[in-house]
Design brief:
369 residues; 5-stranded antiparallel β-sheet; alpha+beta; 8 helices; Rossmann fold; 16 strands; 3 domains
Length: 369
């Protein structure tokens, strides 16, 4: 055992077990990064980490024991997946929420609409816990606005010991990198950032001396009910929008269907056309169809439609019929959402078993009072 941690993922480094996390080849003991982080940073090669939720929770609880505050990072693309109900047991300290990836929102959506919307979601999910504050930002943004956001956040956290908490791939490490980069930290010493879930494996500790701030970056774990949690890391990364949401507006006729990525089928069971707006990642193929052809395509998931590799075809799909009111979304955790406009829509939904779905007030656009 080398007795130091990887700067990239926080795991304890070792040079005896190549198939275990934290491996450094013999003779490389002076390196900053484990072999996995090095390959990810320089070659884009991702090696899936061990999925040990017990160890992850233990690491998070260890960081919480040393902290004054939780900095909770949520993903504007998947609010419900960012706030799994099972996290109630971890909310032992005051919580400050960062709503990340706001750059994904349509250009006409004011960021100031996000805090009240997320506050309402928080109240529904965790009624016994208060938020002490909230900030909307894009950790990967550029320019003076991003610097101003980072400065405001550091001022808010000044003098505290903070645990950064969030589900895998909500952008925790990107946020930490943005905070540290603004402090002129050397790039070589910054944490590893990638589009693959599970990049951070252990606790990394960082200090911003000018603000008297200590930050503990924790591993993110899969909440279990997001679409990406059911698949390999490569497939999960393809579900995520990279730069902007894919937005498609369709007037769907009765019994018309929209199929997404070989994973989701949505049929209009209303007696007339319904205007629906679909929000997904850019790599998800969205296709309109109807009748028996739609049923066959959804059942078979042909190569041109499916997002996942052929061997990852879900074993079981479940169906639900929902009435979604005008000004509401039908959300599919980790996949995206469908906004219903003008009139209520009766929809038939088919998704892989285990994925969280539901209705909510529209995240963007017109809302009904």
């Amino acid at each position: 055992m080398i007795n130091k941690k990887c700067f990239g993922c926080g795991i304890l480094l070792q040079s005896t077990a190549p198939d275990q996390p934290g491996f450094l080849p013999p003779g490389k003991e002076g390196a900053f990064f484990c072999q996995r982080c090095y390959r990810l940073r320089h070659y884009g090669r991702f090696e899936a980490p061990a999925d040990d939720e017990t160890a992850i929770v233990k690491a998070i609880e260890g960081a919480l024991a040393k902290s004054d505050l939780i900095l909770l990072v949520v993903d504007v693309f998947d609010p419900e997946g960012s706030l799994p109900l099972r996290w109630t047991r971890l909310l032992k300290l005051p919580v400050f929420m960062v709503i990340n990836k706001a750059d994904l929102l349509p250009a006409r959506t004011p960021w100031v609409e996000m805090p009240p919307w997320f506050q309402a979601l928080w109240n529904r999910r965790f009624p016994g816990h208060d938020l002490i504050g909230m900030e909307v930002l894009s950790a990967r943004g550029r320019g003076p606005e991003r610097l101003a956001k980072m400065e405001a956040l550091k001022q808010e956290l000044a003098g505290k010991k903070v645990t950064v908490l969030g589900a895998a791939n909500v952008g925790k490490t990107s946020l930490l990198t943005a905070l540290l980069a603004a402090e002129d930290k050397q790039k070589a010493a910054l944490p590893t950032v990638s589009r693959f879930p599970g990049t951070t494996q252990g606790i990394t500790t960082w200090t911003l001396d000018a603000y008297g701030l200590t930050i503990f970056d924790t591993p993110g774990f899969q909440p279990g009910r997001r679409m990406g949690d059911l698949f390999s890391a490569e497939t999960a990364s393809r579900l995520l929008p990279a730069k902007k949401l894919q937005v498609k507006l369709w007037a769907l006729p009765p019994n018309g269907a929209v199929l997404g990525g070989g994973l989701v089928g949505i049929w209009n069971l209303s007696p007339a056309d319904r205007t629906l707006v679909f929000f997904t990642g850019e790599q998800v193929t969205m296709h309109r169809s109807r009748g028996e052809k739609a049923e066959t395509l959804h059942k078979e998931g042909p190569d041109w439609l499916r997002l996942y590799t052929k061997g990852e075809r879900p074993a079981r799909f479940v169906e639900e019929i929902l009435t979604v009111e005008a000004g509401e979304d039908l959300y599919i955790s980790g996949f995206g959402w469908v906004a219903v406009k003008r009139e209520a829509a009766r929809l038939r939904l088919s998704v892989p078993s285990g994925v969280e779905v539901g209705t909510r007030p529209s995240l963007v656009g017109r809302r009904e009072d």
